[in-house]
Here is the input.
Amino acid sequence: MSYSRRRPLPIYLALLAALACACGAFAASARAQVAWVVHGHGFGHGVGMSAYGAYGYALKGKSYQFILGHYYTGTSLGTISGPNVVRVLLSTSSGDVDFSEATSACRTKLEPTRTYQAHRLGNDVVLRTSAGKPIARCGATLRAAGKGVINIAGVGRYRGALETVVNENGELNVVNALSVDNYVKGVIPNESPPSWPMEELKAQAVASRSFALTGGVEGDGYDLYSDTRSQVYKGLESEYTTSDQAEEETAGQVLMYEGQIAETLFSACSGGKTESNENVFGAAIPYLVGVPDPYDEACPLHNWTLDFSGPEMTQKLSGLLDGALKKVVITKTGYSPRIMEAKLFGTGGVTTVTGEQLEVALSGYSTWMTFEKVVGK
Here is the structure.
């Protein structure tokens, strides 16, 4: 099962960016006769593990096994066998893709100190020298591998191999093919600060590994994105000793539910309660149900507030509202309780909106919101 929008990530970098750009929304007109205060909680969709909540549990001395069991109800740890190769889209290129540190490509022995090119020729890929001299015709995919590491010009150094595939737009998809354990090493420090407690990093390692093996997107030559559409993955140069240790000490471990690997969604912080998958993505999943998240308060967006004048609020909601806003009535919530449905009462009539629509329109940080109308402010 896949979803088009899972969570705003990387967790801690996205939080910093959100806080940095929030100042304009917080500055409402003090002279407005009617003002609105939006009280919110959490950052992200709130389904599954809360990174800051896991951090809080780790500070309280809880193990990564406890943390995972808390957020993914009814799951258990299992171990996978074999390399379990994943393919991650790093970028697309309308021109040639230069690479080095490869010892072979397209059944041809290469010199790792030299730079080579992947060049599109129709629907095929051609291996060339850096000067553009053809070496081999590779078919639909050029695969270049070295001694465990490949250097892709303008992209970075990555564990595993480079694969370039012609996509439907006539460009080259630049794909990193590697074992899921090596992939997780390039994910953990981009989803959780590597200075966080080891038990939180281990929980992130297992969640990221499980997600990688269940969250495939079936692209042209790839099954994962390297950004927030899947998980943030930046390869070898983003790795840290602590996050590598977390991966190695949990190597091969995944979360299981009734004999299948669990799809371990996660987000930045819950605001105090996580949310059930069915209330966000529409499908009921037994291990993705809302749970209390008591140690999430370290998150900078555990609680947040947005202030708007009356005209500002009406303008923000203009695409959802009929006339000027009179009141907001929340009619359906989830467990947390994030908004599932609300009614906007305008001077021209009443409209029904979702929590996601309100979050986007107001530049909020989650759908867990309440609305306060202040008259005479």
